Amino acid sequence: MKIAIDAMGGDNAPKEIVLGINRAAQDFPDTEFILYGDESQIKEFVIDNKNISIVHTTEKIEGTDEPVRAVRKKKNASMVLMAQAVKDGEADACISAGNTGALMAAGLFVVGRIKGIDRPALAPTLPTLDGKGFVMLDLGANADAKPEHLLQYAIMGSIYAENVRKVNKPRIALLNIGSEENKGNELTKKTFELLSSLDKDTFHFVGNIEARELLEGHADVVVTDGFTGNVVLKSIEGTASAVFTMLKDVLTKNLKNKLAAGVILPDLRKLKDMLDYSEYGGACLFGLEAPVIKAHGSSNANAIYHAVRQTRDMVKSDISGTISNAVNVEEA
């Protein structure tokens, strides 16, 4: 198996990217890692190049670049070369922590879309109180969506949850403003009808879910349009950050609180780990001919390592081929 890596993408590149790959290279000796980027910077952090190779390029896509224009103009950018390697069959999948819009453009225009998929979807795994997590899509690949797109998201999310996350009979839920089937706008009402018509022996639609229930573990796959999904994701991230900031302020306010903090610190760390996105890997860009993984922009070595673990599982499960077969069967 070969995985292409954009070593120059993200806030902590290339150091944290390479450190994560070092660990992955040791734990997964059957996998070859191709790192794209400035060779002199990358070599500084590579520990053992037994199954790590470097393709040198000084061009990269910045976070401020306009996504589509950057992918078309910067042909030698580390992200574009990474995607091209997948397209050409030189790699089985690719990972980047760089510009999200540019990675989606590279996935769509370079790697290519699965026949039968109208629009790819960005799908991270988010934490739940029981520690199992759930897949949510779309979280930003497409601001607008039709009911037919959400139907495809449900199929792709369910296949991923079952084959990669090893969830038996994944529960699919539709994000809505109420649990009743007649709630919502035109999009959610029509989508509810389509999801209800799915083959019940293969897909397990459990109805609507409200945003306040997302982290309670009521569903394994949650479907929504990209605009709503992105707002929800940023709300969860912002709320978690604010809560931990408030806790820190309270626990360091005076000596009594500091002493109490010392006692409960191990439990607080466990709580923080439960909400740590890095343990779940990156966000999958579903609907493409091969796995394309978007790691968080601020990813550290641990996040990159888990993104590799996730990517390997997707390649071994032939997730793109399984999605292609399922979508074409549904359409037939």
Automatic annotation (TrEMBL):
It comes from the Bacteria. The keyword Transferase applies. The keyword Membrane does not apply. Pfam families: FA_synthesis (PF02504). GO terms for molecular function: phosphate:acyl-[acyl carrier protein] acyltransferase activity. It catalyses: a fatty acyl-[ACP] + phosphate = an acyl phosphate + holo-[ACP]. Pathway: Lipid metabolism; phospholipid metabolism. InterPro entries: FA_synthesis, Phospholipid_synth_PlsX-like. Gene3D superfamilies: Isopropylmalate Dehydrogenase. Keywords: Acyltransferase, Cytoplasm, Lipid biosynthesis, Lipid metabolism, Phospholipid biosynthesis, Phospholipid metabolism, Transferase. It is found in: Cytoplasm. Its EC number is 2.3.1.274. Belongs to the PlsX family. Homodimer. Probably interacts with PlsY. Catalyzes the reversible formation of acyl-phosphate (acyl-PO(4)) from acyl-[acyl-carrier-protein] (acyl-ACP). This enzyme utilizes acyl-ACP as fatty acyl donor, but not acyl-CoA. This is Phosphate acyltransferase. The gene is plsX.
